[in-house]
Amino acid sequence: MKTIAVTGGGGKLGSQVIEKLQLQGHDVVSLDKHLSDRVRCRQIIVDLNDYGQVVGALAGVDAIIHLAAIPAPLHYPHSYIFANNTLSGYHVLEAASLLGIKKVVMGSSESSYGFAWANTPFSPDYFPVDEQHPQQPQECYGLSKIVNEVTAEMFHRRSGMQVISLRFSMIVGPGEYRHLAIAKAETFKHILWSYIDIRDAVDACLAALHADYDGAVHVNVTANDTLSDRQTTDLLATFYPDVKDLRTRFSNREAIVSNGMVKEVLSWGPSHSWTDEEQE
């Protein structure tokens, strides 16, 4: 693979993915609604809701990393968020199929499980939460991610396309940890204290791009530890005492959203923790 398209290339994650791809010697084209001074590659202004524009922008590309999306059920009408995220995902995959592009990496989200934005909070069925856990969103954003994952499965059945959906937890960059209320455990209960350092998120995108796997795969991308200074057993006993099905033994600050599958499928794992910055 020589030429890689990154949708949402001007964004927080996309711009860093582009930089790393260039360091690896790839030609990169950024597809976004606006030009960005964050990236130093060819940029195409594209409305991903316009299929013709997507096909034209992806012509000559060998693989795609699709990161463009409205990233939360905020600031727009819910119907617009759902339509934007699902239609843009469909257009990228349909264009890839038409153009014979066989590898697509899709940005998905742990919000698809439903805990993060639930109007009526509920507990997981078991811990740690893995990819087999039911996805039960109560809002448009999490639902849009599920639709994109199912769409990816359809395109694999139709054309044999390799598609991996990366269910990112909250992405945090260096320098941002100090602004988070990590000592207040209740702050991140709704996301199960799950996070991923942006440097690891970037590396996961590149690992997914280069990995060989069969089918449309969906994997959690999360750190090895929780975004809390409390022991995991303490967090569970305090905030989720109703969850009795514990499928592993927790002894320290282990994450309660599993990243075991991404380690297996991509032969990759996260290497950064919020505690590294605290020690520095």
From TrEMBL:
<feature type="domain" description="NAD-dependent epimerase/dehydratase">
    <location>
        <begin position="4"/>
        <end position="220"/>
    </location>
</feature>
<protein>
    <submittedName>
        <fullName>Epimerase</fullName>
    </submittedName>
</protein>
<comment type="similarity">
    <text>Belongs to the NAD(P)-dependent epimerase/dehydratase family.</text>
</comment>
<keyword id="KW-0520">NAD</keyword>
<dbReference type="InterPro" id="IPR001509">
    <property type="entry name" value="Epimerase_deHydtase"/>
</dbReference>
<dbReference type="InterPro" id="IPR036291">
    <property type="entry name" value="NAD(P)-bd_dom_sf"/>
</dbReference>
<dbReference type="GO" id="GO:0016491">
    <property type="term" value="F:oxidoreductase activity"/>
</dbReference>
<keyword id="KW-0560">Oxidoreductase</keyword>
<dbReference type="Pfam" id="PF01370">
    <property type="entry name" value="Epimerase"/>
</dbReference>
